[in-house]
Model the fold of this input.
Amino acid sequence: HPDELTNVKIEAKRHMAELRDNFTSHLNTTHSKFNIELNTVKSDLRTNFTSDLNTLKGDLRIEFTSDLNTLKGDLRTKFTSDLNTLKGDLRTKFTSDLNTLKGDLRTKFTSDLNT
Done:
């Protein structure tokens, strides 16, 4: 029965080719779906990372601005305090020097007048 054996071989080859085609098609479909899923995940991660990064940048900007404004306020207060202290010290020194000068002039004038 060589003809029957030949027919079985032909049928087996055809069946193997069909299985190979089905497997290849399934593999290509799975690969395509995997790539779509992978690209979706990558896109989602990129979006989430960008969003988180922008949120962090915004938070840091707010925190930095707040700290900067606090520092500016502290420096303004310290400068005003130091300036007022300096003005008070200068006023005291000027008044003291002026009173000393007035006393010295009064003494000199009185001395010159008595001479």
Notes: The chain is about 100% helix and 0% strand. The longest helix spans residues 2-114. Helices lie at 2-114. The radius of gyration is 48 Å.
